[in-house]
Every structure is written in C-alpha cells, then in structure tokens.
Amino acid sequence: MGRRTLEWVPWFVLSLVPALVVVWLTRRANGWLESHIGEIGAWFIAYLGWADVSWLVSAATWALAWLRWIVAPWLALTLFATALEPNRQASLVKSWLRQACTLRLLALATVWFVIFIALPWRLALWRPGGLPPTWIEAPIAGLRLLIAALLMTIGALLIIRTAVRRRGNRVALANP
After folding, report:
1. What's the pTM?
2. More exposed terminus of the chain, fewer Cβ within 10 Å: N or C?
3. Residues 84, 11: contact at Cβ < 8 Å?
C-alpha cells in the first residue's frame, strides 16, 4: 500500500459515519413501525374510516429500505469522494451536501441499484422449473451466480462512478 492510500483511510472511516447513522435510524423506524402497526391501523379506522392501511405500511417499508440500501451508501460514497477531491472550492460539508443532495444523481444511482443489483439478486435466487436434479443443476446454478455477480459488480461500479461525478467533470481519485 502506498503512502497516499494510507492517508485516505481516515476519510474512508469518516465517510462511513453518515451511512451507519442512516442504517441505525431506519432499523429503529422499521422496528417502531412493526411494533405499532395495530395502533396505526386503529388510528386510521377511527379518524379517517380507512380499514386497510397495508398500502401505507408497504410504502413506509419500501421507503425505509430505499434509505437503508441506496441513500446510506450514497451518503458514504459522496462524502468520501468529496473529501478526496483535490480542487474543492468550498468547505467539505458544503461541497458534500451539494453533491449528496443532487436528486438527479441520486435517482440515477437508484436506477443502477434496481437494474444491476436488485434484479440480479432475484436471478441468483431463481431456480428454473423442470431442471432435472442431475449433474446439470450445479453448472446452471454456477452460471446464474456468475451472471448475477457480474451484473452486481457493474451496478456497484456505476453507482460509484455516479457518486464521484461533479458538474461537468469527475473527481480523479487515483492521482499518484
């Protein structure tokens, strides 16, 4: 490891803090939602006359999953990229928040996540029907997992590339 790489370690550790906070908060919120789902349903019945609020609980669960799986890593990646940007004009926090709160880039990272990580994960768990339980099953499973791993790697690379983008240019993280 080069000296420059060792200088990046504290920034990497620091960049994990917002992601860990978001994950912790979303887990707490999810736990609270699960433990109070009856009360929430009762409130909607009593005050609004809605007997079925499963759509609301599903929406909240999806929103918390989005925060945990996409926004948390996004915050870490953008903070790390901003901290290592050699030509940063503003303060670290201001530059980071400007990058992290760019909705177009966050939406693009969400699209990359869905296409290249979430959908290939379903491929990894899928087993084709009618496949005989013979020697062919193992190579087919290995091929499925290889394809899923390659697609997930591409997705991770695209998300990282999106996170290090700046207006009109990209951050050069590999400067010697």
Report:
1. 0.82
2. C
3. yes
Checking if the pLDDT of 153 tops 90, the result is yes
Q: Per DSSP, what are the bridge partners of residue 76?
A: none
Closest CA to 80 of 65, 101, 95: 95
Average pLDDT over residues 45-62: 92
Determine the average pLDDT of the residues in 69-81.
96
Assess whether pLDDT exceeds 80 at residue 82. yes
- Alpha carbon separation from 39 to 22, 32, 36, 44, 174 (Å, rounded): 25, 11, 5, 9, 53
Residues 6+ apart with CB under 8 A from 15: 76, 77, 79, 80, 83
Tokens representing 175 are 């400067």
Contacts of 121 (CB under 8 A, 6+ apart): 148, 152
Residues, the chain, total? 176
pLDDT of 174 strictly over 70: no
